[in-house]
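User: Can you help me understand a structure? I only have the sequence.
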Amino acid sequence: MLVLFAAVSIAASGPTSLPTQARAFVRIERPALVNAAQWERAAPGVIRHERVVRDERGELQLQRVFEYQ
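Assistant: Let's start by predicting it. Here is the structure, written out as C-alpha cells:
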C-alpha cells in the first residue's frame, strides 16, 4: 500500500523541470552615421535604442541603435 501511495505521489507531482536552451542568430550590418532628422523619421517597424556609454578616454558618448527584425 505504501509503495502504491509513493508511486501515485510521484506521478501526480508532474514532470521535473529540465534545463532550457535557446539559440539566437545576430547579423551586424555595417555601421552608418545618422543625423537627428533621420533618427526621428525611422520607419514604424524599426525599434530604436539609445544609451550613454563611456569611451576608452572616459568621455560620455551617446549611442543610437536601429533594430530591424
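Now, to help you interpret it: The chain has one domain: 2-67. Helices lie at 2-12, 36-40. Let me know which part you'd like to focus on.
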